[in-house]
Amino acid sequence: MQRGSLAAIVDPGDHVPVLAALKRLGLDLAAILLTHHHADHIGGVAELKRRYDPLVFGPDDARIPEYAVRVGEGDRARLDNMGLSFDVLEVPAHTRSHIAFFGHGMLFSGDTLFSIGCGKLFEGTPGQMQAAMDKLAALPATTKVYCGHEYTASNCVFALKVEPQNDALKKRYSEVRELRSRGKASLPSTIGDEIAANPFMRTRCESVVRAAQKRSPGVQAGAETLGVIRHWKDQG
């Protein structure tokens, strides 16, 4: 994010490309937003803090650098010198303290919501991930989703195993392949895109539930279905 000569970044796993971008664009780093503690999301923070001393926001977790301002559900990360502020949403499941940031028509979802996917349940349950999906699905459909990794193409391949007749998903996969063939990013998506095509946001849809029941007879819609399809995806 950029406002004038100031920049804010989310989950810098490596300081090197961030420093290169700041230098190329002539920007000063004012703030860092952290969604969770994994090294590929915070690995660059220490060096960036040393060089620029930005304001850092992150979840209340001992694994987050001690200089970060701890924020949780209902808090707001205020970047006053940039005229920006973001609501903090607690979305545990990938990690127990995972948060997301929402504001200005943007969602920074870390490793909770991916385009056409969701994060692995390292420290949480299917019920927690279902609650996170429901919380994010309630955001405006036009909200732009900036997630922690671009797995969109491979996520589409799996999602088509779950819902092979989903026209929105087939259209999304076609668009993604075309973008990637030109070296373009498939992100951001939107909340509306994800509700239409992401099986992890569609766990109460009959077609997704039926696919889960073929692998686990009797499974119920919602969290149980999410758990089945997450395990299915984890198996490769």
The first-level CATH class name of the largest domain: Alpha Beta
Structural category: alpha/beta
CATH topology-level name of the largest domain: Metallo-beta-lactamase, Chain A
Strand coverage percent: 15-25%
Major β-sheet profile: 6 strands, mixed
Rg value: 18 Å
Order of SSEs:
EEHEHHEEEEEEEEHEHHEHHH
C-alpha geometry: globular
What count of helical segments does DSSP give?
9
Q: What would you give as the CATH superfamily of the largest domain?
A: Ribonuclease Z/Hydroxyacylglutathione hydrolase-like
Strand order of the largest sheet: 6-7-8-9-12-13
> What separation lies between the terminal Cα atoms?
35 Å
CATH architecture descriptor name of the largest domain: 4-Layer Sandwich
Descriptive report:
The chain folds into two domains: 1-88, Ribonuclease Z/Hydroxyacylglutathione hydrolase-like (Metallo-beta-lactamase, Chain A, 4-Layer Sandwich); 91-95 and 108-235, Metallo-beta-lactamase, Chain A. Strands 6-7-8-9-12-13 form a six-stranded mixed β-sheet. The protein is built from nine helices and 13 strands. The two termini are 35 Å apart. The mean pLDDT is 98. The chain is an alpha/beta fold and 236 residues long.
Key words describing this protein structure:
single chain, 236 residues, Metallo-beta-lactamase, Chain A, 6-stranded mixed beta sheet, 5-stranded mixed beta sheet, 9 helices, 22% strand
Characterize this entry briefly.
With 236 residues, this protein is α/β, with parallel strands linked by helices.
